[in-house]
Amino acid sequence: MTMNTLDALFKPESIAVIGASSSPAKIGGLPIASLKEHGYEGQIYPVNSKSEEIQGLKAYKSIRDIKGSIDLAIIAAPGKYILEVVDDVIAAKVKGVVVFSSGFSEIGEEGARVQEKFVARLEEAGIKVLGPNCLGFMNLQNKVFSTFTPVIRQGITKPGRIGVVSQSGAYGAYVFALARERDMGLSYWVATGNEGGVDFSECVEWLANDPDTDVILGYMEGCKDGRKLERALEAARKAGKPVIVTKVGKTELGAQAVASHTAALAGEDAIFDAVFRKHGAYRAHSIEEFFDVAYAFSVAGLPQSNRTGIFTVSGGAGVLMADAADEYGLALPELPKPEQEKILELVPFSAPRNPVDITGQITNDLALMSKTMKLMLDSGQYDSLICFLAAGGMGPLAKGMVDQIIEVKQEFKNYPLTVVTVCSAETRSILEQHGCLVFEDPTRAIRALAALAQLANLSGDCSTSIDSELESPMDVFKLESKIYTEPEAFSLLARAGVPTSKAILAKSADEAVKAFNSLEGVTCVAKVVSPDILHKSDIGGVKLNLANQEEVRQAFNEILSSVSSNQPDADIHGVMLAPMESGELECIIGVNRDLVFGPVVMLGVGGIFVEVLKDVSFRTAPVTFVDAKKMIFELRAAALFDGVRGRPTVDVDALAKTIVRVSNFSISAGETLDSLDINPLLVKEKGKGVVAIDALMIGR
């Protein structure tokens, strides 16, 4: 999408209101009243076949009668007239349309057909469509109020640099009201309604390129085009504009749970989490967090890291904040000893480690604040600083405390820090003017700062590649619509560069012995080979630690006997012989094809227990080497990769390369790959690689 295509829609210099009303309380009247009241400088053309004048403005029988050019048409007429109105709009050469009218896809199939028909006609004429069944939008910068939400009758918020996009009109109106109450300035506010034309993703991408917007707030209920959403989020990331999203709904897509661990775990919610993480968006889980993070970024920007210092005048509050920092992932490095000693010289009974508790002694000497904070920042240990003022921030000492903070901020203005103060709203505006955040609740301050640190990490460049050849997809190929046997899956994966165990198929006991001999006498594993048996060990289809010919022959016969007893109708291809492999850690790499986002790659730990542990990370394909490493260290068990209790460090780079190769495989197979589990994948000691021990591949 070219970035200027929505300009005429969201930045109109002339607006026609079809179905205009003289009553500001009605759908067709509120936009006109709001435009006039708040000083819209463009042309307003009311359209009403029964009136000569609307709210002091000349009214037109039809939009066709308007002589001037029209950037935007607001359709507030009843839905039953929509096709007739669309003909008029096209004839008037309008550039953008907002459709308030309802009675379309939200009511059923017939309404959906009408919606599809009229939107197609408008888009064929080059007209962008917002809606139908939407509350419209507001452009606070240019005083455009193309909405009938009653929330603006109680007042509007000031122009600012936060853009809001909501798939729910009611939720969007609530967000607008809260922004107004918190005195947070907005650039644009958009409610997308049925999304017959312009959708959530287009709005986000347009805001990512809008010079008046620095941060984007989004409310999502669903998505029809996953790749389009990813492009929009990536555009925002590259523009350095954080996207803070509230995504509702936690539907699980587990129809193939019996066949595939990945399919069982790759629910809709997990995939959206992965998409947001991949493209640097932050997912908020409450309206409070939604606003706190946006507010924090709009005032203070992003810190360089999560290393945080806590300055407090209350030991109890320091403990509370330290606990919150641990919960939300803020690092609290200890203040170096020389700085601790200097603080103890200032206040012998202080606690100087971090949190630094200077105690209530500041009531006798406010300068202790700035001296201590400067020592903390001079240490170089912290990229952000939180200052808890307790009751002092609300009483007669407040001004003096604020002066101390501003002194520090001015001296360290080139220092990459975010100063967060916790005090009353009375001092908020003064501190915010100097780039300081103000919270009354210390836990909210910690959470907001942790979110900023996470955004700084997520917003980094994920495109760096160590090997362009590694991240180049294979030639396109098609899988058959079947469940592939393990040797077949190994053969295909080997073509993609995935290290697999050497597997030999035997159809008789004699062939099994011959296969064992060809493996030069190494200890082997024997497994039944059948597309009908997905979990072989459950029915006695696996024998381990086979060390000689007699054990191999016996294992072959016992496997066939056990399988025949437990699953007599299974199509048995034979028994596979492979060397017993050893490694430091069992992982799973899987792929599931999502209807919205396409192939989704999963990494997990636990082998057969992956669904019990649920320690997994997801990314949509393609996955870069850098993002593959991020997947690894997102796991709760990430510490195991560095070696614990004397165990060696494992080959993280080989694991990351394998994730990338599986991602490439999924792209090359395209829609013919339904799901894939490599489970277990043994990760060996650093420098010794990985090896796939088992694989389940389903084509479609």
From TrEMBL:
A Pfam family annotated for this UniProt entry: ATP-grasp_5
Ligase in keyword set: yes
Domain CoA-binding positions: 9-104
SMART domains registered for this protein in UniProt: CoA_binding (SM00881)
Alphabetical keyword list: ATP-binding, Ligase, Nucleotide-binding
Example GO molecular function: ligase activity
Keyword Nucleotide-binding on entry: yes
Protein's name in the database: Acetate--CoA ligase family protein
UniProt source species: Marinobacter salexigens
